[in-house]
Amino acid sequence: MDTGKNRYIKAPLGMKDLFPEERVLWEEIESVAREEFELSGYYEIRTPVFEDTRLFVRSIGETSDIVEKEMYTFGDTTDSMITLRPENTAPVMRAYLEYELHKSKKFQKFYYIGPMFRKERPQAGRLRQFHQMGVEAVGSYDPLLDVETIKVATRVYDRLGLSGYKVKVNSIGCEKCRPGFRDLLKEELRRYKEELCELCQARLDRNVFRVLDCKKKKCREICNSVSSIENHICSGCQDHFTTVKKTLEDIHLEYVVDQNLVRGLDYYTKTVYEITHPAMGARDTICAGGRYDNLISDIGGPPIGAVGFAAGIEASLIALLKTRNKENQSGNPPVVLDVYLVSIGSETRSYCFRLLNNLRHAGVSVDMDYESRSPKAQMRMANKIGAKFAIVIGSEEVEKGVIKLKHMQTGEEKLTHDPEEAIRIIRE
RNA sequence: GUGGGCGUAGCUCAGUUGGUUAGAGCACCAGGUUGUGGUCCUGGGGGUCGGGGGUUCGAAUCCCCUCGCUCACCCCA
């Protein structure tokens, strides 16, 4: 283990630390998201980071890459296996069913923010521990909800000041019409089998729909010449999709229909959507979601419709940073202390520590030196951390019982005997 | 799992026909007022040149292996 850049233990591959400076933007994103989610009537649910492995196998699909090779699965003390959640839709539905909400409060709107885990090779905006924020509207088939969730996502981005994102929507049909289209697509694409890339030839059998979003030019051309799903979904799905599109237009939400938009997770039905941003790397999705009317029954519940999305926080952050740099904006300033307490001479330190705690008790944010540094060094620190005031206490001040306040920006110094007065000055 | 690129100070990086004690900027620390910051000046600490092996009189530099990071593929937020 001593072969790395240094000999210290490092964070596991694809896991990142978040230091105070970076946390500022994270908190902005999270708080804006919370506000917008709650503004639309979604309530936070916190589920465990571990779930019974079977939950993901049944919901995401046994043959999906996520289940086959990307899950962190462990045995625990019982004979069941548990898995670090690779996504949070299934856990939320699990909780919904576990408490039998479909019997008491069938229609529910949830949101969540938290870490997810997938054991894949990390790359731009994609980590092994990553974070998602998302909403789930459970218990209704209403297409208005499909639109509402999209709108919630764009509201979050708009309020964060993110520009340049693009909303793509599509309908992938339901359990009635999708199998028929799948067979048709397979049949049509087979005719071009030799011309498809090696990967797509494999996808032909594994998951035909994936051929539709292949990046290779040749494959794209072939896909464009093949029957489009729009004309092959059932009338119910057609109606649903038409309402979705019309409603998007009603509320002036800009979008494009992308016939080649498919989703990787098995549980999606009807509406699927994606928000992309060019600041990302090769994978430009920052938010993705759709309707999943079969998921709840897949995991053993009654047939209940639901729709939702998950937005990648790291991905959104990258997009946001790019946007803001362009506009020459910096993030919010870090935490700023009201006061840095400069103590001169070791004999004043206990006096200063009492003063420090009195100030904190009064709600003044304050810190002091714990390294026995010189007054000059302490002043430098006061300046570096951007404290509004320095309070300078030496033996002279202790003897006279005064507090010496220095305003860091003006350099003006004030003396007072009255601690209340000092607090007033600081609060001005 | 596969492929490309890259590993020199805490950070960003110079350092290629292989040649003395490996550099800069920033950051950090100290001094320039034995009790006062920001600018400025001076000085300082800090590097097994990712690690191991090989070639050579001599390797940060060339070769092999290895580890790590990164981007991309698969897949996905």
Keywords:
Rossmann fold; eight-stranded mixed beta sheet; 428 residues; alpha+beta; RNA-binding; 20% strand; 16 helices; elongated; BirA Bifunctional Protein, domain 2; five-stranded mixed beta sheet; 2 domains
Structural class: alpha+beta
From the N-terminal CA to the C-terminal CA, the straight-line distance is 55 Å
Our count of helices gives: 16
Task: Report the count of strand segments.
Answer: 16
Which regions contain 5 or more consecutive residues with pLDDT less than 50? none
The CATH C-level name of the largest domain is Alpha Beta
Annotated CATH topology of the largest domain:
BirA Bifunctional Protein, domain 2
Q: Mean pLDDT across all residues, rounded?
A: 90
Report the radius of gyration as a whole number of Å.
Answer: 28 Å
CATH architecture of the largest domain: 2-Layer Sandwich
Q: Name the CATH homologous superfamily of the largest domain.
A: Bira Bifunctional Protein, Domain 2
Question: Which overall shape is indicated by the principal axes computed on the Cα atoms?
Answer: elongated
Percentage of residues in helical conformation: 25-40%
Q: Quick one: biggest sheet?
A: 8 strands, mixed
| Count of structural domains | 2
Query: Proportion of β residues?
Result: 15-25%
Spatial strand arrangement across the major sheet: 1-5-6-11-10-9-7-8
Task: Describe the structure in your own words.
The chain is α+β, with helices and mostly antiparallel strands and 428 residues long. The chain is 39% helix and 20% strand. The protein is built from 16 helices and 16 strands. The two termini are 55 Å apart. The model has no long low-confidence stretch (mean pLDDT 90).
